[in-house]
Amino acid sequence: MEWINSLFMKLTEQDNKEVCIKCKAEIEEINKFCTSCGYPQNGSVQEKKAFRIRKQKELSKLKEIELSATVGKSVLFMLGSFYLVWAIYTNLFIYEFHILTVIIDFFEAFIYLGLWLWAKRRLLPATISGLFFYTTMFVIGLVSNPYSGLLIGFKGLFFILLVISVTSARKYEKMIKDFG
Ligand SMILES: [Zn+2]
Fold first, then answer.
1. Cα 60 vs. chain centroid, distance in angstroms?
2. Residues with CB under 5 A from ligand 1 (ion)
3. Which segments in the chain show pLDDT lower than 70?
4. What is the pTM of this model?
């Protein structure tokens, strides 16, 4: 019965239809531009060139959007894995085993890893939460036991990375909005 269907389709097919050479969508022959992808079907050389340039710009914009999202997420992932390794290493090999320290260390690691997972869906709130959580823990740590200069420098580096992740996430949200 397949052939009857295809025959029927052929017979009922309108003559003034053709297929876009770019995206293969069916369009009216009289249309200058493809109604699906916008390719200047019957357009001039200049119009076809302009179409290609526009598409390339869109593509590079998409890549930029993707990069911003990756930067935003990566910082959370990096922080989470660093804290996890740190928690395992210090608690097992360096310091005396204290259950409270273990809990706090792993809690921090899992917060960042959780935020990283959340960032896949909600990038900006996740990175802002990461920065907020990090700053809070930093201040608590600073009050409870004074950090050495080296540790402050190290923690400051993470802080800068988190600020970068929030900036990237904001850029990402803005570009997504502009891109439509
Ligand atoms: Zn098309």
1. 15
2. 20, 22-23, 25, 34, 36-37, 39
3. 1-16, 95, 180
4. 0.70
Q: Residue 174 C-alpha to ligand 1 middle, in angstroms?
A: 28
**Which is it for strands 26-28 and 17-19: parallel, antiparallel or unpaired?**
antiparallel
Please report the beta strands in 82-166, taking only residues with DSSP state E, as ranges in sequence order. none
Rounded Cα distance, 124 and 31, in Å: 42
pLDDT of residue 44: 86
pLDDT per position as a tens digit, 28-76: 877 788 888 888 888 888 888 998 898 888 888 888 888 888 988 999 9
CA of residue 118 to ligand 1 center, whole Å: 36
Q: How far is CA 120 from CA 16, 99, 129, in A?
A: 46, 32, 14
Domain boundaries, the chain: 1-43, 59-179
Find the 19 Cα to ligand 1 centroid distance in Å.
Answer: 8
In sequence order, the 6+-apart residues with CB closer than 8 A to the CB of 111 are 80, 133
Going from the Cα of 112 to the center of ligand 1, the distance in angstroms, rounded, reads 44
Expressed in angstroms and rounded, the spacing between residue 11 Cα and the centre of ligand 1 is 24
**Residue 62: closest CA among 164, 172, 167:** 172
Q: How far is the CA of 16 from the centre of ligand 1 (A)?
A: 16
